[in-house]
Structures are given as C-alpha cells and as structure tokens.
Amino acid sequence: MIKHLLSMDQLSAEDITTILDTADSLRQVTDRPIKKLPTLRGRTVCNLFYEASTRTRISFELAAKRLSADVINFSADSKSSVAKGEGFKDTAWTLEAMGVDAIIVRHGSSGAPHQLSRWVKASVINAGDGAHEHPTQALLDLFSIREHFKELDGLKVAIVGDVLHSRVARSNVKGLATMGAEVVVVGPPTLIPREAATWGARIEYDLDAVLEDLDVCYLLRVQQERQAEQLFPSLREYAALWGLDRRRLNRMKPDALVMHPGPMNRGVEISAEVSESPRSIILDQVANGLAVRMSLLYLMLGGRSKEDVTLEELAV
Amino acid sequence: MSAFLLTGGRVIDPATGRDETADVLIRDGVITGIGKRLDTKGAETIDVAGAVVSPGFVDLHTHVREPGREDEETIASASAAAAAGGFTAICAMPNTDPVADSAAVVEKVWALGREAGLVEVMVAGALSKNLEGKKMADIGEMVRSFARVRLFTDDGHGVQDALFVRRTMEYLVAFDAIYAEHCEDAALAEGGQMHEGERSAALGLRGIPAEAEELMAVRDLALAKLTGCRLHLLHISTAGTVELVRRAKAEGVTVTAEATPHHFSLTDDALGDYDPNAKVNPPLRTEEDRAAIVAGLADGTIDAIATDHAPHADHEKDQELLYAPPGMIGLETALGLGITNLVEPGHLGLPVLIDRMATAPARILGLAGQGSLVEGGPANVTVFDPAAKWIVDPTTMHSKSRNTPVLGTELHGKVVHVFFRGTHTVTDGRVASEALV
User: Which position among B138, B268, B289, B308 bears the catalytic label?
Assistant: First the structure.
C-alpha cells in the first residue's frame, strides 16, 4: 500500500477496489457490540486540522479509535498560527519528535500535505487541502455509489456547482474516471475551470440538459462568498439555474441517486425536500466515511506485523 | 597597482564585434592591451586557454534587501554573489525598507555598494512614494544625487493608475530616465500563486493569467509612444508580451525588455510538487511561453537577461505555498542556466549570450566602462569556462539565501575569474576572501 495518501492520482482502479472491499469487511465491526479491533494498538495518529471541520475530523478520530490507535487532535486556524510564529514546519517537526505514526492533515493551502510528507517520517493522509483534493471524501463517495449500483464502470455522474474551488470535485472526478464512470461537471462558467476537460470530465453549463441521463447527481456546496466575488449574480439565480429541487429530481431516472459532501445550503444547491428524499444518500455517505477511513488506516498503517489481525481472522 | 595578463582565451566583446583568441593585459585597473605580443613586464600571467574572456556581466534587476531585511541579503553579500556569478555591475531594486524613493535612501545604498567594492552597485529609484502608485517619488533629486539614478520602477507592483503612469513618463523625459514596469494588473492577478492554466487548475492553486501582464504592457507601450519616455519592461514572461514588444519596436517605440534565467529555463511544471522555491512573480509559465522567451532573446526582441535575484529566508520559504513569498535567487546561476538552456541547445551563440548579459544591459543603464572590452577602458572582465560542469550546491553559494528550485541540478558553464576595475575579485571561482564579510 502507498505510504502517503495525498491525491487520487496515486490510486489505480485495483487500489481503490482493495480499499472499498476492505471497508466492506471492516463495516461488520460497527455492527458488533464491542466496536473495536486491536490492529493499530500502540500506534499514534494525529489529526492536524488547520481548517474548521466537524464530520471529517470526527470520522477520522473514530476510525482510528475503532482500530485501537491513540489519537491526538491538533486544531489551529492557519492564520492565527502563522501570527503566533508557530510555523507549519515547526509543528511538523514537533509531531515527528513525538513519534506519531500518521498525520491526517486538513489545510487551506493547496499542497500542504505534499509539503508535510517531505518533512516527516510518518504517513500523511490528506483530509482536504485548499482547492486541491479531498481523497477520503472521494473514496467514501465511490463506496456509497458502489453499494447501490454494485459496479462503477459505465455510470453517468454529474458533479454540479463550484468545481473551481472544490477539492471534493477534483478528487471525485479523478476517482470516478479511474473506475470507468462517465463524469460531467456542471455549473456556471465562472465556477467551472475550462481545464476540467483534461481531468477526464465533460463540461456542461446547462443542468437541465444532462439530468435525464444521470445515475448520480452530486451537488457541491456553494460558498456564500462566491456571490460577493461576483461569480454569479445572486444565490436566488444560482438556485433557479443549478439547484436540485423536486421538479428537477422528477426528471431524473427513478433509481438515480442524489449526493452531497455536506454541509448543505438548503434552498441553494439542494432543496430541503430533495435532501430528505429516499433518493438522497447523504447520510449513508457520512456513515460510510467511517468504514472507508478505517480501511485506509488499516491498509496504510496495519497489516505489517505478525500480531496484526488479518482480514480472514476478522471474518471469523 | 597590479597587472595581469590573461593568455590564450577566446576574447568575445559584442560591443566591438571582437571574437578571437587573444591575450588581455590589465594594468592599474585599465585594459591596456588586447592581442598578441603585449608588453607584459611585471604582469602576473594567468593561463585562460579554453575559457572565454568576456566583459563583466551587468544585472538590471537585483533585490539586495538592504536596508530592511539584512537577514536575507546585504549589499555586501549580494555583491559577493554577483561577483561569483561573473557580474561587475548590478542594479539594486527600490523595494527595500525604507523604500528607495528619496535621495537619502538611494545615496545610502550606493555608498554601501562602494564600500563592498566587489561590483558597481547602481540604484533604481521608486516611481512613487512608498511604491503606492499614488504620489510621485523624488525623481529629480534621485537623478541629481550621488547615486545618479537612471532607472525608476515600482517593481513588485504594477502601477495601476494610467494617469499616474502618463504623468510620470512625461516627467522622466526631462532627465532621459527610464520608466521600468513590473507588468501586472492587480485585479486579474489577485491572490494568484502560479500561472493560470492546466497546471493551476489541477493543483487547485489560484492562477495569474498571462493577460494580467499583457494588458499592462499594452497600456505602457501606448503611453510610451504618447510621451516619448524610455520604457523598460521588467521580467517579461509570456509569449504575448514578447510579441507586443516585437511589434512596438518595429513601430519605433523606445522600449527595451528583459527576461530572467528562470523564465527561459523553467515552466509551471516546476510547481507540480508544490515547491515554494518555484513560486515567483511573474510566475513560471507554459512551455509555449518559455519557447517564446528563448526566441525573443535570440532575435533581440528581448534586449537583456536580468536575474530578478530575490532572496528570501528559509523560514519564510518553508511555509505553506499560500504563505510563502514569491521570488528566487539568481545571480550565481544565471550564466550556467544561460549556457545550459540557451547556448548548448543551439538557440543562440556565446557572443549573443554575452550581449544579453553584459553589453545590452550596460547600454540600457548608460553605464560607461561596463559591457565592453576596449583598450583604455576600465577592466571589468569576466573569464568563464563554458564547458565546466557543476552542481548547484547550497553550501557554496555567496548569497545569504538559498531559495532556488535549481539546487542540486547540474549546470554547464562556470565563472573562473572576475576583474572589477582591475581588481581580481574572483580567482579560480572563489570570491577574494578579504572581500567577504
């Protein structure tokens, strides 16, 4: 398995399948009365979060704890940290000196996990960097889609919204393309980089033109500040042109799925009604995040010594 | 004083068109003979067979960081780095702290340059007070100061207000001084970390489009035509800007342009691993832009190679890419990059490279006694071995900073000797130790 997970570029279709299959096996643990495995006993995992996050940090923390790792949480607003003079590299060296085995990092600066991986011996897992990537989100999304359709190959997936600023979009386009899905990115031209075509995605500005073919409609969060930056005239207009409401949902295939990485802006990119419809698997995504992150930690940090529990033993 | 005889080298002087194997005699700070059978009495003979004897290089664009950031570079350390790189003159940019926008500051920088004594330190003055692009700096007083400022720029910032540009250009005409622009539209470039294109989109980094440079170049070329002011475009980086300069020159606009070694050597691929040392402003562009810069240097559209030597402390460059300041050092690698990336692939010959590094920049700055090898002229001479291979090694550099993406790479072409006004400042590639502080 890879030493660091920085980008979906690093993962082949085979790697992704291994991660998702392992997540499937590990999910059984969650159904047990004692939800814990000894696999990472004695290992230390640090959550290094320079941006506010609830679901991703908690998900990683719980995943590490279910595998019996010790978990340290370090949260810092990157700007206040810079102001205090405690640099990113100093923090990296501090964690290194304390002998952590893995660092799960979220940072507002694209590439921060790449830089970190050059400074430490620990494994680095990218939990979201700037507008670059969020690979574990993509993996849990692939897991959630696969759960419904069994196969990812040949599925038609639209990623709708602020692709330009979205790390979720970049990781998902790559992951879906690797697994053979057809991806179209949809949104106002100010939020769709022309270069998305080189990532293996088709570009479309009209959501209504693609709805009927879709197996999955994946909506991205629209940040309020994009309106202030004049990337579109108003949230109202955005909702009218690119928001998924009941009317648009009804035009989609009956078994098509609605997904969102959260947190949602109800009434903007997704109507409240659609978010709670049976076609929405938004809560499954959250639940699956735990299994996928356990799988990654298991594959990246565990399985190295004889005392480790193997997947076969787990199945017993 | 001392006398040196350089024997058997290939003497190249673009100013006079000389390119021949000859001896060069330096006596009491002056070139007293070029040729054979010179009066060598009392001269120390240095065998330079196989090497090139060139006018000392002239850098139009050096950030010396003093006053203000002496931890990153001083005028003395920049002078040592310049000498090691084969330069005998540098032009210090005004974005210091305090800004070089008054006679007092430019005279201080000039005096510290004289004190260091390794290269001629010319001083560029700011166009506007505190580089704010609003109030004109003390232009006439800087021209008339001991520093004799000839080139004015708000480098680091493009001047955004077209009316300010027009008035300043008109005013500079009185002194035959140069308006030098860092072409960058601030609104289009806002928040940009690298060139805008396929690379920036994939890396999730905000880009600076080529048009941010080109739009300002268009404006400045139009205003230079209107006012008759001499315009110099700093560190041009895009194929579009090269073409704009080419057309403006054909129309007779009084414009000159420079390009940096990093823009003719590297592309935005260098950012692929989020290396903050590859973050620079203007950003490294595409292969197409790089090729256009090379072509512009070869055909003379771009007059000069300038380093934009921009030292930064390790602890500032070792931050997240978003917070790392832009810039890279360049004095000690300029010749090597020129030979490796321009001469060896056959884009231009050594005489043209020397013209772009010495003769043309000396002419732009109006520096008598630099950029040429003539009998009776001051002995500003660089001897380099164009075939010598070396690895860029952070432990042997003279700059106080180490921020360059070419650390560890092999370059061809190495400076062996430098004479500054006849003083042997670099011997066998080492800067005279008594000169090092």
Answer: B308
